[in-house]
Amino acid sequence: MSSKTVFTLSGVLCLLSLVFSSGCSTVAGPNFGMLNFPIPVSPYLQKTAEDRFWEHERYDRMPILGPITPGTPEAALDEPSDDQVMRALERARPTQGGLPFLEEIQRNNVRIVKEKIADYIDPPRVYPMVGPAQLHHVHYKCIVYFTEVTRVGWPIPYTTTDEEAQEVIYIDLDHLHMVGNVDTGAGSNY
Fold it and tell me: Is 65 helix (H, G, I), strand (E, B) or coil?
C-alpha cells in the first residue's frame, strides 16, 4: 500500500474511535438503537390525538346513573356544553387542517341556542355488563350562529365574510339509570 492510503485509513480509524468513545453516544442502560433519539411529531397530528382523547374521555362514554326515585323530576337537567357543541360542529364542517396562507377559515362572534326536542325513558331491561337499567333518551337541537371568514391566499388572494352563517347540530345525551335494589359495594365488609 502507498503511504497516502495508509495515512488516510489511519485518519479514518482515529476519527471513528473518537466518535465511538465520546460520552455523547454511550448509554448507561438498555440500548434501543435509533429509538434513543427523539422523533419529531407534527403539531397537527399531536393535536388530533389530543382531541380524540379529550372527546373519548368527556363525550363518547355513556354514564350509568343511580335509580330514578319517586317524587323527583324525570327530566334531564344537563344540556350539552358549548365545547361539546363546537366539537360536533368541527366534525361536521372542519375549519382546522387548512393550509396556512392558502386557505384559512375562522368562526367569529359565535352564539349558540340549545333547544331540548325529546326527553323520555325506556322501560327497564337487562343490558350486558350493566344489569337491569333504563335508557334515558335526551335529544337537543343546537343552532350555532357565527360570522365565517374565509381567507384564500393563492392563486388570487381574497377574503370572504359571511355575516349570517348558521349551522344546526343535533346532539344526543343518552344515559342509563340503574333499576331495582342497587348494591354499589361501598361500605361492604370483607
Answer: strand
The chain-wide mean pLDDT, for the chain, equals: 85
How many other β-carbons are positioned within 10 Å of the β-carbon of residue 70?
5
> Rounded to whole angstroms, what are the CA distances from 74 to 60, 130, 177?
23, 21, 11
Rounded to whole angstroms, how far apart are CA atoms 80 and 171? 8
Rounded to 5°, angle at Cα 80 from 78 and 85: 175
How confident is the model at residue 75, as a pLDDT? 82
> Which H or E run contains 178?
strand 175-178
Q: What is the pLDDT of residue 82?
A: 96
Q: Is the peptide bond before 40 cis (omega within 30 degrees of 0)?
A: no
Q: Are 144 and 110 in contact (CB under 8 A)?
A: yes
- What is the distance in angstroms between the CA of the first residue and the CA of the last residue of the chain? 85
Question: pTM, whole model, 2 decimals?
Answer: 0.70
